[in-house]
Amino acid sequence: MLPPWGNLMIELLKGTALVALIAVPDLMFVAKQINGVTFRSAEAFGVALLIYYVLARLLITPAMRGLERVMAKRLGRT
Known about the structure:
The protein is mainly alpha-helical. Helix content is about 75%, strand content about 0%. The mean pLDDT is about 80.
């Protein structure tokens, strides 16, 4: 059950505005505003992509792997 749940967490991160974690009201909204002012869409949306990637790769994925290891030990599947 844990691997699909981890995938769901990453999908929720990509599908919703969970950027309250980084103190920005809405990351994509800010990126659109920057794009509207500077017309540098690659940089604005590239930074948004990097922030989402860091959240998914460095926070959610290791947490889910650790949880899977703990549950495997509890169930005796090492």
